[in-house]
User: What shape does this take?
Amino acid sequence: MDMLLHSPLLSSDDVSITHHTHTHTHTHSQSHTQPSHARHSTIHPLHTSETGVVVSAAKWRRRMRRRVSIFDRVLKRDVRRDYMTMLRNSINSTNPCLLLKFFTTYCLPSVSMSSRMRSSSEVYKQLSGAQHIAYTIAQAVGELPDFIMVVQGVQIKQHVCYRGSQIVAQTVFKGMKIAEDMSDSREKLQLQHAGKIQLGSSTATMSSVLVDVHMVSVMTLSLDELHRIVCFEMVEDIVDLDMYGNTCLKNTCV
Assistant: This one.
């Protein structure tokens, strides 16, 4: 074959035709060596090592799409994590202006609140939206001296079938409150059992007793497709630890 290619009797067109015929013959001979199912198969099967079942690529893609639509996607790195950081700094400042600025900047005017926190002020009860949330939190936090809020385990959850997302975090609130109102029978019995007050003593003598407040809650910020907060939700459990080591878990907010 090489001698024919270098022969002076062949023109350039003959050499190209001969080379094409040789290539086609070589390719055709290789095709006979391949098995029949490999030549006629258009979809390469995927073999699962656990069950040994052969699943086509189209079925595998459909199955994965169904799994993605069922389970949530948890985003580990996202700008929306800064929402909890800004909210924590605003709450720790105990400044209602900073809280109001945060909620008015990143919330919709019709933002709703789902929490057991209730404002005792009649003026705050008349407010709605971001103002109601900001002043309610500021009033609850302002009643606790040495207050601090810690945010743990921030997660960004985004549903495939829903354009919005959720920011979920575990928050820990720590502070102290003054036990001035001894009408609560539980606190009164605890202090009487500890021998610190006598039965029938007045509440004025107990105005200096401090009670530690430890609250663990799950805070959720629901966002729309433009990352605006549409709902503020907080499910809290308060643990009161008095100065004598007595512990009680209750489901009401301070």
